[in-house]
């Protein structure tokens, strides 16, 4: 049976029950609504490992490690035995084997791979998480598995890679694919999908800033880009329905040493397995 074609222009929808619940909360109180939206925003969906990723899942050495700065345990994947290591970082509701196509090609080109299930993702514990825990996980993995020559991140993983480099991750080059950019835009898009008023995006931001004692915009990818000198390849699809291409273009504009590669018709996830994309990555990461 032929596989269903992936429609790259179709954005993931929030289930109707969640939208209805948000509307009910809005009728009851603004405070309740903000707490509800914060919970939904920080709760990823755990997907079963698909068959296409089982080879990497079964052949990698898996280990549970602790990330002391956030007090959570995560599962890491060490794939291959070569000394030259590359770190792969998945996106929201992803898992450590999601970039398996890229991992396979890197193995064939003399690298070994370290990836991980971020907190509340895949086989790692917890139900909720935020980007700062992705970043903390990256920095802890560097301590235990590094040094890494390259870091590659998809979506939220791309934002996390840039922020981790800003915070001290040492890599020679980095690649970000379909990365988000401005945190407020991400919050506003989330609120829009919930069919709520735009002002609720600001309330959600204020809630997070008070709870975690940090400025959300400090985690925006373009801000991290401005502070790093590492060569970065930005890859984005013109038809990405999850993260608009303007995000990748804006990040590139703020990098001191950046390259931009735009694709067509690959959307947000199909781009991870595209041979032209992988070829571009391999060309870029070759150490001069």
Write a structural description.
By secondary structure, the chain is of the alpha/beta class. It folds into 2 domains: 13-42 and 183-216, no CATH class; 55-181 and 220-285, Alpha/Beta hydrolase fold, catalytic domain (Rossmann fold, 3-Layer(aba) Sandwich). The protein contains 11 helices and 8 strands. It has helices at residues 16-28, 30-41, 54-59, 100-108, 131-145, 156-166, 183-193, 199-212, 221-226, 245-254, 275-285, and strands at 61-67, 72-79, 85-89, 112-117, 150-154, 173-177, 232-237, 258-263. Strands 1-2-4-3-5-6-7-8 form an 8-stranded mixed β-sheet, with helices on both faces. Helix 1 (16-28) runs antiparallel to helix 2 and helix 5 (131-145) crosses helix 6 (156-166). The longest helix is centred in the middle third of the chain and has 15 residues, at 131-145. The chain is globular, with a radius of gyration of 18 Å. The chain starts with 15 loop residues before the first helix and ends with a helix.
Topology:
Elements: H1 16-28, H2 30-41, H3 54-59, E1 61-67, E2 72-79, E3 85-89, H4 100-108, E4 112-117, H5 131-145, E5 150-154, H6 156-166, E6 173-177, H7 183-193, H8 199-212, H9 221-226, E7 232-237, H10 245-254, E8 258-263, H11 275-285
Helix pairs in contact: 1-2, 2-8, 5-6, 7-8
The CATH topology of the largest domain: Rossmann fold
Dominant shape: globular
Mean pLDDT: 94
CATH class of the largest domain: Alpha Beta
Strand-residue fraction? 15-25%
Largest sheet: 8 strands, mixed
Tally of individual helices: 11
Low-pLDDT stretches are 1-10
**What's the number of extended β-strand segments?**
8
Number of domain units: 2
Q: From the coordinates shown, what is the CATH architecture of the largest domain?
A: 3-Layer(aba) Sandwich
The H/E string reads HHHEEEHEHEHEHHHEHEH
Rounded to an integer, what's the Rg over CA atoms? 18 Å
Q: What structural class do helix, strand and pairing data support? A: alpha/beta
Relevant CATH superfamily of the largest domain: Alpha/Beta hydrolase fold, catalytic domain
């Amino acid at each position: 049976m032929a596989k269903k074609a992936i429609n790259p222009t179709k954005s993931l929808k929030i289930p109707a029950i969640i939208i209805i619940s948000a509307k009910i909360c809005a009728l009851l109180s603004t405070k309740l609504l903000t707490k509800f939206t914060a919970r939904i925003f920080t709760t990823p969906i755990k997907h079963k490992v698909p068959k296409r990723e089982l080879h990497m899942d079964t052949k990698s050495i898996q280990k549970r490690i602790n990330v002391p700065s956030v007090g959570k345990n995560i599962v890491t994947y060490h794939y291959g035995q070569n000394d030259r290591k590359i770190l792969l970082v998945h996106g929201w509701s992803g898992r450590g084997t999601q970039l398996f196509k890229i991992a396979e090609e890197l193995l064939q080109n003399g690298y070994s791979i370290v990836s991980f299930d971020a907190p509340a993702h895949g086989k790692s514990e917890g139900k909720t998480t935020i980007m700062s825990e992705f970043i903390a996980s990256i920095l802890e993995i560097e301590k235990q598995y590094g040094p890494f020559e390259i870091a590659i991140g998809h979506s939220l993983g791309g934002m996390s890679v840039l922020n981790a480099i800003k915070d001290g991750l040492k890599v020679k080059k980095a690649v970000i694919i379909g990365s988000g950019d401005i945190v407020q835009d991400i919050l506003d898009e989330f609120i829009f999908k919930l069919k709520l008023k735009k002002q609720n995006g600001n309330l959600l931001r204020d809630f997070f800033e008070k709870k975690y004692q940090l400025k959300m915009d400090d985690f925006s990818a373009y801000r991290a880009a401005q502070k790093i000198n590492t060569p970065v390849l930005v890859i984005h699809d013109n038809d990405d329905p999850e993260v608009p291409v303007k995000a990748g273009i804006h990040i590139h504009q703020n990098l001191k040493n950046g390259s931009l590669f735009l694709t067509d018709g690959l959307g947000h996830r199909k781009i991870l397995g595209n041979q032209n994309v992988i070829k571009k990555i391999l060309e870029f990461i070759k150490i001069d």
